[in-house]
From TrEMBL:
PROSITE patterns: TPR
GO CC annotation terms, alphabetical: anaphase-promoting complex; cytoplasm
GO process annotations (BP): anaphase-promoting complex-dependent catabolic process; cell division; positive regulation of mitotic metaphase/anaphase transition; protein ubiquitination
Stated name of the protein: Anaphase-promoting complex subunit 6
InterPro entries per UniProt: TPR-like_helical_dom_sf, TPR_rpt
SUPFAM superfamilies per record: TPR-like (SSF48452)
Keyword Repeat in record: yes
Entries under PANTHER family matching the protein: CELL DIVISION CYCLE 16,23,27, CELL DIVISION CYCLE PROTEIN 16 HOMOLOG
Tagged with keyword Cell division: yes
Keywords assigned: Cell cycle, Cell division, Mitosis, Repeat, TPR repeat, Ubl conjugation pathway
TPR repeats: 311-344, 345-378, 413-446, 452-485, 486-519
Gene source species: Solanum commersonii (Commerson's wild potato)
Position of the signal peptide: none
Amino acid sequence: MREEEIERLRGVVRDCVSKHLYSSAIFFADKVAAITSDPADIYMQAQALYLGRHYRRAFHLLNASQIVLRDLRFRYLAAKCLEELKEWDQCLLMLGDAKVDEHGNITDTRECNSMYLDKDGEDREINILSAICFLRGKAYEALENRAQARLWYKAAIKADPLCYEALECLIENHMLTCDEEKTLLSCLQFGPEDGWLSSFYSCLIKKYDKENVVEAKFRELEQSGPNTKLSDKSVLCTLKSNTDLLACKAEYYHQCGEYQKCFELTSELLEKDPFHLKCTLVHLAAAMELGHSNELYLMACNLVKDYPQKALSWFAVGCYYYCIKKYDQARRYFSKATSLDGTFASAWIGYGNAYAAQEEGDQAMSAYRTAARLFPGYHLPTLYIGMEYMRTHSFKLAEQFFMQAKSICPSDPLVYNELGVVAYHMKEYKKAVRWFEKTLSHIPSSLSEMWESTVINLAHALRKLKRYNEAIAYYERALALSTRSLSTYAGLAYTYHLQNNYTAAITYYHKALWFKPDDQFCTEMLTLALVDESRHGIDPIVESRSGGLFM
């Protein structure tokens, strides 16, 4: 057969692959490889077999060739076959021995000297070493060696920043702390044309910076900079409506506690792309916070119909039952989600929360501990363990776990709030004030109703320290956030009472009792305030001692 005819057959194979006609591709690739015995044609045949899901046959073909241990491309495809066959130890053996340090740098560089039969390199390729590192990471993760998996994922993204899957595994599986994520991104070597990718990656990681910093990152992607080339400008302008970027923005709104804003954005996104699963997860979380049970029900029904084998579908069912406070059913479906995908962090947290909602502390702690072990870069499991200890009045243990959560994510204001609460319970009021003030300083956006309890707690702590004027200022700040809080009115009344300002105290006790007429504390203190005011009006000596007109 002439060379032109063989080349025509190769073109047929490539066309069959592009049209997903894998049986045809296998048929013609087999004939080409039989005629030429060329390593490139043998690889093309193995590729067609792999795409046609004939993994065992593809592996046998590659393993039988003499070049498999010398050409990285052959070795990588053979390892991919073993990955599909779930033979993880054999997969690692095929990839060969290699070492990586704690920062994700490959110390054994023997693979760099191996052959690599490059294809016609019109398109930009991802470094084969990066792909091999990523596959090693997947194998180690499947073998539950998450420490090694983390190192190899880092090695993969360092070897080639275009290997997005490695970064996705590190972020989605919460393998790195906030600081480790930032450090990793800072040491990636992007090409001069990949500035947009660096900005995009910075939007994907945990976002606990101040609002203006995060918004600046989004704006940088949504509009071209002054030094941007014309070719780059067209790319950057189109990213303004990119669903991945908008899903990141929605995730940021959720972290800030702006649940309505988050829900509106995800609703808009899901109208455009109803099967964007990352956006779907954020949408479910926002709907949960807002108590939109009808939306959760519809989402759960659609997901179970479209993706019955995905953990997200059953997680959505669990969210619905949790929202309507049927915690037993919620637990059942959160458990199903974790059994389908053991690396689904939100399902583990939901599973623990469903137990905690019914005060079943031991089971809740078990779920949180599993999550803390599986996701070392995720601070919420550790935070929830601390909350469970605080619920059982084990304040010292609670404080230890809150400090551990702080070391994982030092930017989350929720951690500082819990540290302030536990310090308050231990009667360490100065420390409580310090933690609550730190909470308010770490809130990324303007104060919202979500943080009203922190402001009230700070006012309570200041009142305990007899810093009454400061306490009153924070109570009034809390009233600006929400005018329907019994605790705020009661605290404000009691602070005025301690200052012997009985008229103001009586006014606020009455306001507090309007929300809860049978509140024992406010009822008793109102009676005392009325008695004190009557004495205050009768006895001028009392008036002078109380710091009134005769002061």
